[in-house]
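STRUCTURE:
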């Protein structure tokens, strides 16, 4: 099988799905381009800011496309390339795309509030509280994990650290120039993208070498500032400019494949049980962000919904953004599948990121780009997006923490609703876990993230039912993801009981019980056994 056929065929399928299925979803849900979005209604200049679709797509895409869609498909390739590819395509179109689009849409209809507020409107405050705890704990894992990943990357690849710091300065300049000094958006983009690649080059010339712990401390300060600063000055422009790195990386990989046209060497299917890992449910948990991710619902309902200029933009940003990520996942799969088993095993000694960087650099070398330069560029791009996911997750956790302690019946709110206090709690705990404590519970992150997706799908279905709109497209995805993730948690609990890792037993057990309680009440409402709370748009 030719890898070129796989990539181009997948892209064609995604385009068709976007045009037809995306349009059908918009019609079924009642997307209204004339309706005022929270970005216009509130427009506080900090979190709620009407944003051009191109900029918001860049921010959203950069936030959701961290290391997940790269690492997941490569790790899952142990089951063979066919099941991974099928799940990326089917999962992306009918699971992840619907999940991301729906999360963004229902959040917009709830004043830009999180999925937790949607559950509040459909299941009541108890449901919201339980979901908020679950989401906050899951995002805390994201903060801890990505802080450690970024710090480790910066320590091992000092060029990435320099480039990333320069990105921040460039982003502030871009945001200030475009939003406050009237620099034309097009001109600003051209200059910004050029300077972006200059930053990449300067990173290779002036690498900054520090220890992992030093970078964790620096990142803690950075994400605190990034989470509380107005979105227009850093978050939006940084993510928008960084998205060009990923677009260039995907385009370069596809162009290289057009010239190289490598054949697939890995087996199509290796077996249902590989090295003690069962294809069901582990394939679906391992691919993760390449097909569906609960983290995306937090991004869509946490930051993106507050910046949406028009409901019509939700399709390209929510559904389209997920399908672009699926293309990245297919490319990541190809970087593993074109290798022999022996070659893949050797490269995997450096981790899935090494496999991806080596593969894309090999593809781009076919149109004349030096292999070492290409590999460095890919490593820099991936680290930049890990940093993007990190500060977005911190901001999202700040929103969830504030919402949890907000009391609409009181004029004076608790100090815990203060954005600096709520951010500080997340940053301090996340940084502490990144110093080593997070490694104890890291294995449950994949299951927790996918279980969060199942609960987000449930929340969307609840809202659509109460709004008397078609929610049939949510039923199979939410049931399937709930079954998959609960089975994965059971396997994890069993394995760690045998290994006497009791922390890894208690934590997933709590998540398991919490998910079951939410699912029991939510499914009762969805299937007509409980009327729940009256919906108010």
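SEQUENCE:
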């Amino acid at each position: 099988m030719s890898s070129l056929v796989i990539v181009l065929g997948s892209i064609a399928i995604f385009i068709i799905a976007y045009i037809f299925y995306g349009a059908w979803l918009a019609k079924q849900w009642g997307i209204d381009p004339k309706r005022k979005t929270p970005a216009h209604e509130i427009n506080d200049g900090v979190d709620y800011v009407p944003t051009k679709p191109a900029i918001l797509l860049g921010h959203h895409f950069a936030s959701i496309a961290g290391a997940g869609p790269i690492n997941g498909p490569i790790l899952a390739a142990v089951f063979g390339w066919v099941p991974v590819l099928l799940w990326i395509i089917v999962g992306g179109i009918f699971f992840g795309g619907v999940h991301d689009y729906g999360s963004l849409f229902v959040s917009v209809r709830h004043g830009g509030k999180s999925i937790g507020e949607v559950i509040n409107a459909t299941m009541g405050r108890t449901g919201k509280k339980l979901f908020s705890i679950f989401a906050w704990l899951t995002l805390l894992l994201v903060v801890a994990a990505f802080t450690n990943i970024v710090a480790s990357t910066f320590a091992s690849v000092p060029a990435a650290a320099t480039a990333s710091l320069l990105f921040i300065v460039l982003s502030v300049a871009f945001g200030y120039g475009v939003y406050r000094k009237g620099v034309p958006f097009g001109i600003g983009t051209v200059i910004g993208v050029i300077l972006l690649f200059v930053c990449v080059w300067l990173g290779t010339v002036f690498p900054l070498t520090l220890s992992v712990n030093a970078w964790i401390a620096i990142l803690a300060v950075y994400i605190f500032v990034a989470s509380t600063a107005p979105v227009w000055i850093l978050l939006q422009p940084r993510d928008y400019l960084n998205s060009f790195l990923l677009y260039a990386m995907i385009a370069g990989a596809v162009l290289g494949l057009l010239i190289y046209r490598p054949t697939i060497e890995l087996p199509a299917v290796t077996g249902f049980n590989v090295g003690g890992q069962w294809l069901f449910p582990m394939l679906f948990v391992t691919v993760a962000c390449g097909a569906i991710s609960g983290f995306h619902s937090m991004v869509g309902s946490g930051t993106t919904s507050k910046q949406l200029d028009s409901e019509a933009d939700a399709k390209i940003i929510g559904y389209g953004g997920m399908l672009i990520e699926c293309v990245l996942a297919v490319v990541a799969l190809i970087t593993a599948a074109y290798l022999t088993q022996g070659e893949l095993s050797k490269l995997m000694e450096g981790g899935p990121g090494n496999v991806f960087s080596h593969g894309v650099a090999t593809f781009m070398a076919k149109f004349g780009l030096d292999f070492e330069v290409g590999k460095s560029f890919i490593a820099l791009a991936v680290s930049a997006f890990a940093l993007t996911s990190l500060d977005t997750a911190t901001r999202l956790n700040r929103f969830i923490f504030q919402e949890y302690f907000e009391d609409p019946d009181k004029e004076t709110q608790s100090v815990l609703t203060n954005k600096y206090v709520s951010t500080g709690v997340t940053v301090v705990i996340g940084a502490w876990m990144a110093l080593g404590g997070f490694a104890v519970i890291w294995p449950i992150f994949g299951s927790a993230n996918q279980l969060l997706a199942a609960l987000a799908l449930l929340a969307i279905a609840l809202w659509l039912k109460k709004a008397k709109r078609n929610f049939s497209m949510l039923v199979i995805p939410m049931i399937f993801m709930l079954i998959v993730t609960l089975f994965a948690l059971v396997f994890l609990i069993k394995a760690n009981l045998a290994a006497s890792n009791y922390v890894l037993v208690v934590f997933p057990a709590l998540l398991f019980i919490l998910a079951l309680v939410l699912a029991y009440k939510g499914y009762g409402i969805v299937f007509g056994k409980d009327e729940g709370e009256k919906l108010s748009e």
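REMARK: Residues 132 and 331 are 34 Å apart (CA to CA).
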